[in-house]
Amino acid sequence: MKKWIPGIIAIIVVLFVAANLYLIFKDKSAVARSFYINKWIAAKEEKLVETMKKDGVSAPLEEQLVYYDDSKGSFEGFSVKRGEEVQMGTTLFKYETDTYQETIDILEAEKDSLEKQIDGLEDKLDDLEDLESDTSLKNVNKKEGYLYDTVSIEMDIFQTEAEIKRLEGEVKKVDSQIATADDKLPRLEEKSDITGVVKDINKDLSNPVLTIASKENMIKGTLTEGEQAKVEPGMEAVVTANGKKYKGYVDQVMISPENEPKVEKKSFYSFTVVLAEEPEKMAHGTHVDVKITTEAIEHALAVPASSVDKISKKKQQLSVLDKGKIKQQKVTTGLKVGGKQQIETGIKEGTIIARKPLSWEKGTPTFYTPLKVSQWEKDMYKNMRKLEMAKLAGKGFLSM
After folding, report:
1. What does UniProt give as GO cellular component (predicted)?
2. Residues near 182 by Cβ (< 8 Å), separated by ≥ 6?
3. Burial of 290 by CB count in 10 Å (0-12 exposed, 13-18 middle, 19+ buried)?
């Protein structure tokens, strides 16, 4: 073979590659890139839920702080001990008065105070009833400077009567205490307002002398600065404890950090979750997992997040199939959850898109996809007329 032949072949190859590159990249070239697209997908509506996972610990839902008041008498002794379960109304500790007469005086003074309040309310009630029966209710009472009307007077009468009944009930209680008093040293008692467990007792009588913790649980946790801005009271939450899940909701989100804020340190904020149902067995201090639903969209138009081409913060696009051709479609994105991206504007449900963004600069690109012969139906050939098959075959030969 002559020595100049390889050189000629090399020149031809270079010219061929250069010509193809020119045809591809020149303006308005009819030759454009071809893309292999393994799979097309359709945009569809689905529920998107954004959640936040946090660690938590159980704590008493409610606490009662009980104080010792030495003005009521000297301290006789505790009636309960630490760790003991108590019911609402259980006696916690007792006061001891110095003399029988001192106890009677205290009760009678309380009764006198209640009766004076009742007398004042009865006078007020008489005045209101007189006003109600007056035919000139809509006139201005110059002495008092108020404008009375029937509705407001009836409301005042109702509230006054209710308060009188309440105070009369208190008087009956005091009368009962006085009536049952005997020659024994009388005692005044401090009782529990809630059902729970005695958490702390201060035997030195430093206040609060007793702390009662309710048996019901709430969940406490901590948020970072960014998380605190996303979580709001009322958001749904799911608590997982000892392998079981319990529904609840966020009750409080503190706006003040747990510690004194400092420039050089990050701030953390407390939050609490109230459970919809009380777990059968959950000791205070049990560590749990908390999942808070920060945002939920029932009918979100969603696509795979990998299909979105993020050109800039304000500009995103999808590669869509439109009338058999690929084009870039500008879109506005919304909530992103895992591998799903919400599309707010730009496409509609059912729009066909490429799973991954495609990029080209010149011309109109073509594409090819795998041929899935298994999906063809044999009946399509049986139903096709011979003339149609002949026409298609002819077109195939002519295009070669």
Report:
1. efflux pump complex
2. none
3. buried
- Conformation bin of residue 356: beta by default, left when phi > 0, alpha when psi is -120 to 50: beta
Mark which of 262, 296, 330 sits at the end of a domain.
Answer: 296
The token pair at 49 is: 């839920």
Q: Which segment of 14-18, 226-230, 239-243, 330-334 scores lowest on mean pLDDT?
A: 14-18
Q: What is the CATH number of the domain that holds 310?
A: 2.40.420.20
Shared domain for 111 and 228, answered yes or no, is no
Task: Collect all residues with Cβ–Cβ distance below 8 Å to 295 and sequence separation of at least 6.
Answer: 48, 49, 50, 335
Helix axes 100-133, 150-179, angle to 10 degrees: 160
223 and 339 fall within a common domain = no
Is 129 found in the same domain as 237?
no
Q: Are residues 352 and 289 in the same domain?
A: no
- Please say whether the beta carbons of 310 and 335 come within 8 A: no
> pLDDT tens digits for 35-50?
777 778 999 999 999 9
Range of the structural domain that residue 145 is part of? 63-192
Exposed, middle or buried: residue 355 (CB in 10 Å: 0-12, 13-18, 19+)? middle
The single-letter DSSP state of residue 324 is T
Residue 296 has pLDDT above 50, yes or no: yes
Alpha carbon separation from 169 to 18, 110, 114, 126 (Å, rounded): 105, 13, 10, 21
Q: Is residue 307 located within the same domain as residue 379?
A: yes
**Together in a domain, 86 and 174:** yes
* Domain tally, the chain: 3
Is 348 within the bounds of a domain? yes
pLDDT tens per residue, range 105-150: 788 888 899 889 988 888 888 888 877 776 454 554 444 444 446 6
Within a domain: residue 206? Answer: no
Question: What 3-state class would DSSP assign to 364?
Answer: coil
